[in-house]
Amino acid sequence: MGKNFYKDTSLILCMKYHTGYTAQECQDLMARRSIDDGFLYTYEKTGELTGILRITGRAYSACSTIQTMYYVTFEENEDTAVVLKFHQAYGSSPFPCIPKRWVDEFMIHKLQVKPESMETITYHTVGRKMPEN
User: What is the pTM of this model?
Assistant: First the structure.
């Protein structure tokens, strides 16, 4: 493989959900926290169709250091697509520290996304150079 071999670091970094709410309704719902949400989080609107979701813990759990950040983008068509793109985890880890099923449950509860419409998008990040032997 040679000295310039790069390890594949592809990860599941992006999830796409579809809901019947408009983008504005989604943003309003994301900003409104509820004790039933399952996560401790903040949502910051950064643009008309964008925001940042910072998950800081799991409600009703001793798991308190699951800090993870997602960029959120809304795409309006017949329904609204909500795209969560993983950005950073606690301690700048390049890996999401929250199981995808927890995020799916949160989105089903929060925005009534259609479970059959959930998509996972795999990114291929720039590989890390393998150490030379």
Answer: 0.75
DSSP state of 91: G
Between CA 29 and CA 25 the distance in angstroms is 6
Whole-number Cα distances in Å, 36 to 16, 24, 57, 78, 109 = 22, 21, 13, 28, 8
Indicate the residue type of 95. F
Q: What domains appear along the chain, each with residue ranges and CATH number?
A: 19-118 (3.30.310)
Instruction: Quote the pLDDT of residue 8.
Output: 42
Banded pLDDT at 94 (limits 50, 70, 90): low
- Asked if residues 118 and 108 have their Cβ atoms less than 8 Å apart, the reply is no
- The pairing of beta strand 11-19 with beta strand 119-123: antiparallel
Average pLDDT value for the chain = 77
